[in-house]
Amino acid sequence: MNLGYANIALRAAGGSGVAAGLEFNHNFRVEEFRRPEFEVSAKTETEGPLFVGQRAETSVAASYFAGGGLPDAPVVWRVTSTATTFTPPNRSDFVFGKWTPWWIYRYERPESHTETFNGHTNTAGKHRLRIDFDSVKPARPATVTAEASVTDVNRQTWTAKTTMLVHPADLYVD
Q1: Which of 31, 58, 83, 101 could join 111 via S-S bond, C-beta 3.0 to 4.6 A?
Q2: Are 144 and 168 in contact (CB under 8 A)?
Q3: Do residues 95 and 107 lie in contact, with contact meaning Cβ atoms separated by under 8 Å?
């Protein structure tokens, strides 16, 4: 296929009813595809449960498919904390956080906060980031997502993420 703009036309043929004879056109752009030369994986090194006032270690590992780590590659971390709810295992009758009744549909964007951090992978292709859970206001559970993007010398960028649940305290009161 040639690079550039392309169009696909879809037409419902035969049959009867609402879809009979309908047409749909979709425009898109064909760009160059480069095979990935390396893979990226992220994980949370600290075991849970995690609480406000503590910290967690996250790591990203970038390695070539041919073997070996991706040394001295730029890493951009994007860490986002989003207010959420928590239901204890085997206790579906309890929900901690901001509860919205199921019969009321009201889309509200959850409160969130994002920060960006930069670094470089070590000689083994790994980078670690320590995340301090300073405070949550109001005190409610939060989902913290750490997303790491690694770029190689050929300017290919791949991203991996890990997610953590952070509790406002070690006990909940109902």
Answers
A1: 83
A2: no
A3: no
In this structure, the number of other CB atoms found within 10 A of the CB of residue 111 comes to: 15
> Tokens standing for 25?
């056109």
Single-letter code of the amino acid located at 106: R
CATH class of 38-167: mainly beta
Question: Does 82 score more than 90 pLDDT?
Answer: no
Backbone phi, then psi, for 58, in 5-degree steps? -120, 155
Q: Per-domain residue ranges for the chain?
A: 38-167
State how far the Cα of 146 lies from the Cα of 57, in Å rounded to an integer. Answer: 10
pTM: 0.73
Q: What is the pLDDT of residues 9-46, one digit of tens each?
A: 988 777 677 767 788 899 999 887 778 889 999 999 99
Tokens linked to 135: 């405070």
